[in-house]
Amino acid sequence: MDEQRTVKVSKYLSKHLRHQPERLGLAPDEAGWVEIDDLLAATAAHRFRITRAELDHVVATNDKQRFTIDGTRIRANQGHSIDVDLGLPPAEPPAYLYHGTVARFLDAIRAEGLRPMDRHDVHLSADRETATRVGARRGRPVVLPVDAGAMHRDGHVFRLSANGVWLTAAVPPRYLRFS
């Protein structure tokens, strides 16, 4: 499977497992799981045929580990805009986490902090390098350190997704470090 096809399949799966399963006639369970056979049949019916080998390849090689297979089921690890409960337990974060963004959003972030926007949670990275890559998707990246230790001590809940993304409901401005 070439890289272009891998990216195309990954984006298609992200769109339909995280945001629009109904467009394929899928109904994920409360935790976001769908049967793999149902997914493959639905993609074929919508003229985007994915083989089981391609699906396994995308899940195994995705650099962001966006998906998990559990037996006969698959789901996205995080980033949903549909209502799901991933069942992730609260976790104590490291002292600092990082958020990648671009300069055009800084005024709003200074005023309102980090909000989940159309997702369930704010996504944070454990290291600057990952946050830099995330921010670079929209332009020249700006990395904001988040005082996650202070947030946790103040009662904010963090969860760690299966692919290492830290999730929290919001990050108030006082916990952000602007350089």
TrEMBL record:
<dbReference type="GO" id="GO:0003950">
    <property type="term" value="F:NAD+ poly-ADP-ribosyltransferase activity"/>
</dbReference>
<comment type="similarity">
    <text>Belongs to the KptA/TPT1 family.</text>
</comment>
<dbReference type="InterPro" id="IPR002745">
    <property type="entry name" value="Ptrans_KptA/Tpt1"/>
</dbReference>
<protein>
    <recommendedName>
        <fullName>Probable RNA 2'-phosphotransferase</fullName>
        <ecNumber>2.7.1.-</ecNumber>
    </recommendedName>
</protein>
<dbReference type="GO" id="GO:0006388">
    <property type="term" value="P:tRNA splicing, via endonucleolytic cleavage and ligation"/>
</dbReference>
<dbReference type="GO" id="GO:0000215">
    <property type="term" value="F:tRNA 2'-phosphotransferase activity"/>
</dbReference>
<comment type="function">
    <text>Removes the 2'-phosphate from RNA via an intermediate in which the phosphate is ADP-ribosylated by NAD followed by a presumed transesterification to release the RNA and generate ADP-ribose 1''-2''-cyclic phosphate (APPR&gt;P). May function as an ADP-ribosylase.</text>
</comment>
<keyword id="KW-0520">NAD</keyword>
<dbReference type="InterPro" id="IPR042081">
    <property type="entry name" value="RNA_2'-PTrans_C"/>
</dbReference>
<dbReference type="InterPro" id="IPR042080">
    <property type="entry name" value="RNA_2'-PTrans_N"/>
</dbReference>
<dbReference type="Pfam" id="PF01885">
    <property type="entry name" value="PTS_2-RNA"/>
</dbReference>
<dbReference type="InterPro" id="IPR022928">
    <property type="entry name" value="RNA_2'-PTrans_KptA"/>
</dbReference>
<keyword id="KW-0808">Transferase</keyword>
